[in-house]
Predict the 3D structure of the following.
Amino acid sequence: MKKLLIFTVLCSFLGACQQYSGPRHNAVVRIKYSKNTVVSNRQTVSNSNYVSITQNPWQYINNQINANVPDNSRIKAEREILLRDPQGFETIALRSEPYVYYIVNQLRKNNLPVELALVPLIESAYDPLATSSAQAAGLWQFVPITAKEYGLKQSNYFDARRDLIASTNSAITLLQNLNERFNGDWLLTLAAYNAGEGRVRRAMEKNHAKGLSTDYWSLELPNETMHYVPKILAIVDIVKNNTRYGIKLPDCNYENSLVRIDITKNISLAKIAQYTGLSLNELTTYNAGYVQQTVNGPFHLLIPHAQAKSLFQKLQAENLVANEITELLQDVPYAPMPFEVKSSAVQHNDLNHQKISSIVENNSNNTQITYQVKAGDNLYSIAQNYRVKITDLLLWNNLKNQRIKEGDVLTINLVNANPI
């Protein structure tokens, strides 16, 4: 697909990247759930693994990883490089915080493997302002020709490749198309995402003509692509087994996820910065699609949840906004496609496709979620977060007192919650 922003040695790139400087908040998180929000259970795991995307997207990714990473020397080599700089890896993962909620949710809504949320980590280090030497741009690193094919418009004012919403939706369509064309083989899909479908096809045809295997591991591909797929599998393995490798996954805060405010007139990001506690650099990063740092078509502003309400009210007073604040995260339906390693050259386990059993009851009177208690939580703070009464939390969870500890799982009924 492109010459992406990738490194000869990923570890050195990670070390060179700046620490994500977005806002960090410890305030109470006011999480808004849609009526059909689903918290899912994979296979037979303990209640402590029931974690919703809004609570912790990286733990959700960890719990939902469905790939069997093979014992492969090329993957081992990439993993060793990555683990030389665990802090660098953690820094890049943390940089995903404003974007990963939307990306994970869109993958789930489109029935795609959650592992694909790791692609922007290797493509752009989760930096929407990233640009490669081949002019690939944005989180998903679209080159101009592919961007045009998938509806990502570019002008002197707006580059949709850098927009979280537009680029993620186009990347999902591209990945779906490639995976269908390569008969569900995710390794060939990712190779084609990196090198282009035609380049992978030619390598397969060359091997076929010689009577050789046409699986990913047997193909002669560009050097970048030869490292690209093993690197992604190495990252999948590291995330899946983060404790074993001494890697701390980000503990994201939903207040730092992005929401959308629809603007009715052109307005500069510099002026918006004056209304918020955010710097112009932060606003520019979140809204990287606006080439001249002015909100125009498509007239949507992305801003962290924590600043959205205050900003909306200030813009509303000047007749600059339309509608209400739009949260990007919605419900998470259905089971994922398996991220299978299809290759005759690598052993892999057949995945048992068990139906995901929801622990959410959805009807006209009740929406039930589960919440995993985190360090520093108490019943009062949880009750405040979800606008329920402590007495109801005690009743729903058969608690005799208010003592809870980290790792406990609580049932919370949202729709029937009494107003405070």
